[in-house]
């Protein structure tokens, strides 16, 4: 029996509207593969307004990437505090994002590394706020969580670095502070390895159902810090020496 994509999307959208968190998706509406995950994500994204970016990542440098569209309503370009009331749980990840300065439309031939890099206008430090429409993270099967926009809550985008070609994301230092206290400091940390591979996959495969990638999209390429949970009242600062810093608070 085919998975009920519409029922899955509606259950997740209703959970957002009513703040009635799910133990699991309804029987018959749980995705069985990556294609069904993507179809559920797309229905949710279309219902919530324009798509302004993507999150993309991979479990290791050889793994098939996964992605989720990010709605404009969840993108924050200033350090203004976010209301804790909008979240179910509050997870924090410091990441590196790419802003596209030109389109990468659909085509038959795969995009080369240089073609993708030439489309990038600037690099940005970002903070992803991780959330879930389920009762907790990891409470149900991984594909259902992936269908829930891969646990996305919000993306806080830091200042642009236009002269970014000298940045090596794989060996980029990162420091994460909560309420002024360093909670993590190391080099690298993204399980996917080189994020350019992720951008190529997104342009070639991940964004096909959306007509490709367009100028102005912000693409965040996976956690450099791992997931850290915080409570309301936390001020968050992520520093990437040489790249920049980004801050926010959940109050």
UniProtKB/TrEMBL annotation:
Pfam families: FAA_hydrolase
Recorded GO CC terms: cytoplasm
Domain of life of the native organism: Bacteria
UniProt-recorded Gene Ontology molecular function terms: 2-oxopent-4-enoate hydratase activity
Domain Fumarylacetoacetase-like C-terminal span(s) in chain numbering: 88-250
Membrane-crossing residue ranges in chain numbering: none
Keywords on record: Lyase
PANTHER family for the chain: 2-KETO-4-PENTENOATE HYDRATASE (PTHR30143:SF0), ACID HYDRATASE (PTHR30143)
The name this protein goes by in its record: 2-keto-4-pentenoate hydratase
């Amino acid at each position: 029996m085919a998975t009920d994509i519409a029922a899955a999307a509606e259950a997740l959208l209703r959970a957002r509207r009513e703040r009635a968190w799910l133990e699991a998706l309804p029987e018959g509406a749980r995705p069985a593969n990556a294609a069904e995950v993507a179809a559920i994500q797309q229905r949710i994204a279309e219902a919530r307004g324009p798509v302004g970016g993507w999150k993309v990542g991979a479990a290791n440098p050889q793994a098939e990437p996964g992605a989720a569209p990010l709605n404009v309503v969840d993108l924050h370009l200033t350090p203004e505090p976010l209301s804790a009331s909008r979240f179910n749980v509050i997870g924090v990840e410091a990441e590196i994002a790419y802003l596209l300065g030109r389109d990468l439309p659909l085509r038959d031939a795969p995009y080369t590394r240089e073609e993708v890099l030439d489309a990038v206008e600037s690099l940005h430090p970002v903070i992803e706020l991780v959330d879930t429409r389920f009762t907790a993270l990891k409470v149900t099967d991984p594909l259902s969580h992936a269908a829930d926009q891969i646990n996305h809550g919000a993306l806080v985008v830091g200042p642009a670095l236009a002269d970014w070609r000298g940045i090596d994301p794989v060996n980029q230092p990162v420091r994460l502070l909560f309420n002024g206290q360093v909670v993590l400091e190391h080099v690298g940390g993204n399980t996917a390895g080189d994020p350019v591979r992720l951008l190529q996959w997104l342009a070639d495969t991940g964004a096909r159902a959306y007509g490709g990638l367009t100028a102005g999209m912000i693409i965040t390429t996976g956690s450099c810090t791992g997931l850290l949970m915080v409570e309301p009242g936390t001020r968050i600062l992520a520093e990437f020496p040489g790249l920049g810093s980004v801050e926010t608070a959940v109050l």
